[in-house]
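Task card 7
Instruction: Convert sequence to C-alpha cells.
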Amino acid sequence: MDVLRVVLAWAAFAVFHSLTVSEGYERRVRALMGERAFAGWHRLVFTTYSAAAFLLLVLHLRSLPDAPLYRVEGWPRILCNAAQGCGILFLLWTPWDLKEFVGLRQWERHRKGEPAADGSNDRLFTEKAYSIVRHPLYLGISVFLAFSPAQSVNTFVSTIMIVLYFYVGTFFEERRLLRKFGEAYRDYQRKVPRFLPLRWRTLSR
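Output:
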C-alpha cells in the first residue's frame, strides 16, 4: 500500500508538471499576462512553483513508511559509483544555460528593458552529448539514479517513476521540436537514438 502511495504521489506531480508545460496552458497564461510580462516573468515563476511542488512531494515521500531494499558493497559498489560518475560526466558534456533554464536571464532582460529573445536565431543543436542521444539530460540523470548503490523501497520506486516520466516526456517534447524545426528534426531523429545510445533495426523504413 505504501508503494502505491509513492506511485500516486509521483503521478500527481507528473500530471501537474505536464499540464503547466503544455502549450495550451502557456497560451492561456500568455493571454492573461500579456506578451512582455510573459516573456520576462513566466519562466521564473514556473521554476518557482515547480520547485515548491517538488519540495512538497519530497516532504510527503519522507513522511511515508519506508524500508531498506538493498545496499551493494565491495567491487559492485565501485562499478555503481563508476556508472554514476559517467552519468555526471554526460550531464557536464550536455551544454545548457542554467540562468536561461530557470528564467533568470529572461527576467534580467525584462528588468533592463531589453527586447525578449524571439527565438528567430535558435538552431537545432546536435553536437556533444546531443550527438549520442536526443535527450542527454534525461539519460544522465537516469543513469545517476538507477545506479545508486543503496536503495530503500521508496527511493527505488521513485527512481522507476522518474525514469519512466523522463521517457514518456520525450514524446511530448519532441512534438514541439518537430513543429519548431520541421524536417531538420526529423533527420536528427533518424540519425540519433531517443533515450539510449543504441540503434535498433526495425522493419519500417
